[in-house]
Amino acid sequence: MTIDFGSDNWSAATPAVEAALSRVNTGYAPSYGEDELTARVSRLFCDVFEREVAVLFVATGTAANLLCLQATARPSGFVLCSDQAHLYNDEFNGPEFFTGMRLVPVATTAGRMRAAALHETLGTLPPAGDRGPLATLSITNATEYGTAYTASEIAELAAVGASLGAAVHVDGARFANAVAATGDSPADLTWRAGVDLLSFGGTKNGCWAAEAIVVLDPAAYPDLSHLRQRAGHGISKQRFIAAQFEAYLTDDAWLTTATHANAMAARLAAALTADGAVRLEWAPTTNEVFPIMPTTTATRLRAAGARFHSWRVRGDEEMVRLVTSFATTDEDVDEFLALL
Amino acid sequence: MTIDFGSDNWSAATPAVEAALSRVNTGYAPSYGEDELTARVSRLFCDVFEREVAVLFVATGTAANLLCLQATARPSGFVLCSDQAHLYNDEFNGPEFFTGMRLVPVATTAGRMRAAALHETLGTLPPAGDRGPLATLSITNATEYGTAYTASEIAELAAVGASLGAAVHVDGARFANAVAATGDSPADLTWRAGVDLLSFGGTKNGCWAAEAIVVLDPAAYPDLSHLRQRAGHGISKQRFIAAQFEAYLTDDAWLTTATHANAMAARLAAALTADGAVRLEWAPTTNEVFPIMPTTTATRLRAAGARFHSWRVRGDEEMVRLVTSFATTDEDVDEFLALL
Amino acid sequence: MTIDFGSDNWSAATPAVEAALSRVNTGYAPSYGEDELTARVSRLFCDVFEREVAVLFVATGTAANLLCLQATARPSGFVLCSDQAHLYNDEFNGPEFFTGMRLVPVATTAGRMRAAALHETLGTLPPAGDRGPLATLSITNATEYGTAYTASEIAELAAVGASLGAAVHVDGARFANAVAATGDSPADLTWRAGVDLLSFGGTKNGCWAAEAIVVLDPAAYPDLSHLRQRAGHGISKQRFIAAQFEAYLTDDAWLTTATHANAMAARLAAALTADGAVRLEWAPTTNEVFPIMPTTTATRLRAAGARFHSWRVRGDEEMVRLVTSFATTDEDVDEFLALL
Amino acid sequence: MTIDFGSDNWSAATPAVEAALSRVNTGYAPSYGEDELTARVSRLFCDVFEREVAVLFVATGTAANLLCLQATARPSGFVLCSDQAHLYNDEFNGPEFFTGMRLVPVATTAGRMRAAALHETLGTLPPAGDRGPLATLSITNATEYGTAYTASEIAELAAVGASLGAAVHVDGARFANAVAATGDSPADLTWRAGVDLLSFGGTKNGCWAAEAIVVLDPAAYPDLSHLRQRAGHGISKQRFIAAQFEAYLTDDAWLTTATHANAMAARLAAALTADGAVRLEWAPTTNEVFPIMPTTTATRLRAAGARFHSWRVRGDEEMVRLVTSFATTDEDVDEFLALL
């Protein structure tokens, strides 16, 4: 038996996404986004974000991040991002290769940067005359640590970025979880808060490969389409990405699955800490829980078939990461708790 | 009514590919290629190529090409490729961005480079001491012009490349069509002929997004996996690429669909030229036909609902491109001929 | 004995330049262009160009070219340049590495592009929707072939570039020779003709290493200083570059040396063709002569100690390149003619 | 009156260097390093390093560093360097642009990294499977903080680098000061200690623009010459760089000037701390002194005409940097002390 909290990208796709893929698997459609479905789904994004946005589909979240950073790159520039950011830790120095810029990690609390930490980090850079500009502020929402920024928190950070001349990017690989957790609207979490570019993820929340760059002020980044094609990130049979997003966005399916994943994590967190065998350094609001438990316990759980990542070992304790998704069931949670 | 010869990437996916995608759409699997299906399908590639090969899945043919070129890049280096090559004409200068090298186009006959043309092109470069090395020879097989190289033709070109110290890459976006057309084996068309790296395409021949970099001598290119991740071309739910390839390669499905596409093109070519209203500058052996017809005829066909690309207009004549695929039916051909 | 027509960069520096270098070789001066001499010499450039310009000193002409191209780069972009351009033939694919763009060579007559050739070359590119933008038009003046463009010729080419949205760059490694040959002013040959960026050379005309990027509209390229520093092209003891340029520009010394070099070439060309043993395909107006002579003659001249580059061998004839400089004397010319 | 401790690159060139430049300022010489003087001076380097080395001249120390890093670059790779390294703090993110790699700063004590700190820093990276390789270890010797590594200290660090598969680079912008301070030979400080590539500086120690990349195992980096040309760092009239180095290396002139500069710094340090008005956190052994003094004192010194950089202000104290050079005189030191 396997209980799987390995990652939300270990899940499959939702039945709705699978059905949508089957539905468009017929006939012919112009390639590289010239198809009708792409046009229709782009309108859905405009509805979700309550304004005209430009949307560029890609197959991976790293692609979305790299292209957003590249679009904002400036010579000798810097990117401020969280020290837990996916693009800092998990993208194999793609940001440096694509932009020639330096990433400057900002200390986080429960995965979140605070305005004070931004200022503190900026203070460690050489004075402005002796270096290039701060080109980009990148914020991950939901964070890599199972937490989310509210719209007003995003706005506070974005204001710092803007005051320094930086473009503001949000890595929203788990954007749905942030919307579901905060109750703030996509518009409030992005352009109304001062965000310029969003990596909008579908893959971790029930698509099988569907990511979008959402350009919140389309006129500001006219070269993104060329950047995408140049990097080999234009998908020829793009209707298959569009179809996933159609299923994803229709009837708020994306929020339903994200709400479910968040709820599963909350239930897990509550139960885990109920009897004190396990503790949490912070409470999750999205779909990741980081319990600290005796290493012997973690080892026993793995031996019993539970799958999850180890995050940190300190002394005879281990912090592990449990990720829920649309596919997580109450039974999964119960079985895991029973094992524990 | 629409008769569609627009492109083989305007087609959908085969039922077998769709079924395979549905089959793996369940449960959990480790991401980024750590899943069992990826391992199993990699073995299939070794069987197809009759040797140990390394396989890296990506979502686009351009990605495969760019990463192969990047793996072979050398400072101040040059890439020789056909003047009709996709990577020369249709990849938005991605090769220059990814490699810093210059592409040098070689004149072609019916889409094919000949050894003499390679030598002639080399003669136009500055002498070896005044420039960087020839790093890469890239050959498209099947070509962009509906023709294919035999194994011995590939070997002849590869020998020129090797004699100059160049790595040899084959852009096989339509590799299946080349195998089907020549009857030569994948091994004979690649490593036995001196090819180092292959972009192996599935998308144009019945997958919806499945491309692979086949490293024919795995020890020679150890950095490819990092190159792929760095460029955002690692797919998190990679089993969905692997599943497509499993359906594609099992029971020679890929050769069945390619053989069908080639046959449809041959039938089209034969019928088109039968009554002399249309002529061909070269006979297709794979799945693209380039008839030359009066512009009035082309215009009339489009108005009647036929879709295809215009390639060249000269005087009152137009060369158009008709692409067949696994999805092309005898009825499509008949209807087109009837329209004509 | 050696008669040296190898290249104008085989010459030494003028006594005035040497004296200026000695004069500043004392005391201390702030580094990286913060010194007073740099400020003063920048004013000289404004005088020469009859407007406010920004000036960035570098040590090589290739550096100037690369940084100008980089400043004008656009994703998936193209650079149009002469098929004889130094940056196309002699810069080791630095333009591709620095910009990620493709260089498109334009056919030349006696080293000069014509507007018709620009249009013809543009016609060979894919249609605008299928490729990136034309980012840059680069014109070499004086050309690599001993000829120069007049201000009106530059304006005609620049107008074509501008109509396509391209920035206009002039590689002026031999700009002095062009000014001397045409009698047109630096302003007329650049910004009044629509030029945006100029690589202004001193090295080939009597400095030992002094090149400048002249930004004709300083507000348009604010990142150039960062581009220069990032590429390691900022000179710490920059006063030594500034000193060369002070000597170079004062009292029109640069035009005096260029006029002399041009005159020596003219004298050489006239004498060479006087008795018909040698012929010229075009008449030089600057400081390079390309006589065509029997190979036996060229071989004999070399054996007798004359140094020059071979340009083209065809049948039993050889086109050679003879380059004059400020250092060429009447005696050098006479001795060469006597040898001949 | 000015007392100048601003930087060793605010100095002029030594009379010997000036004389050498004048001496070669005659006649003609092949360009781009094909001249006899370059060949002769390359032999001098072999003598200094007691083995066959390859030498590539460039005009700036940043160029030397960038090209060395680029020669050692690997996809997704990392560079370990001191958190005070010039290439980390003062090269405008050129390393990121040239290599696509990430720089990881290592904590220092008095400007020096220790093996323990290397290991500690490595421990902060993701595990080896989740990231690219450690490509390069870069060590600055003499350091940016007026200290130097001995040969055995270099060997200890290099051994850590080598054990991780990294190439070892030394930024020797002040290499002469390190040799003079430690008494260790150039060979012992480099290849015998496991160093692969050296940026060998002349500019800060009495040249006006002369830097060299010393390839300690020439066969290992065959592409460096192309890297240099491609980046515009090949100097056409290279004899003028070679001439500086000939004067620099002949009769150990470079060690004489460095010994002098070091001695001036030692004298300054000793006198500064004699009466307790000023303190040092570490004792200099090369040519930079970092006294901590009341801000009022620093302000008063500047007002009196002393030039130096401010390094750190904390409370009402200021750490300043005083740099000596070949040009510093006993009188300069005395006057500064008198002012104080």
In short:
By secondary structure, chain A is of the alpha/beta class. Helices cover 40% and strands 19% of the residues of chain A.
Describe this structure in words.
The structure is a homotetramer of 340-residue chains. Chain A is an alpha/beta fold and 340 residues long. Helices cover 40% and strands 19% of the residues of chain A. Chain A has helices at 15-23, 36-49, 61-71, 86-89, 94-99, 115-122, 151-163, 175-182, 186-189, 224-230, 239-249, 253-274, 295-303, 330-339, and strands at residues 3-4, 54-58, 78-82, 102-106, 134-140, 167-172, 197-201, 211-215, 279-280, 288-289, 291-294, 306-307, 309-314, 317-323. In chain A, the strands form three sheets. The first copy, chain A, has a seven-stranded mixed β-sheet, with helices on both faces. In chain A, strands 9, 10, 11, 13 and 14 form a five-stranded antiparallel β-sheet that branches. Chain A has a two-stranded parallel sheet with strand order 1-12. The longest helix of chain A is centred in the last third of the chain and has 22 residues, at 253-274. The two termini of chain A are 15 Å apart. At the A-B interface, helix 1, helix 3, helix 5 and helix 10 of A face helix 1, helix 3, helix 5 and helix 10 of B.
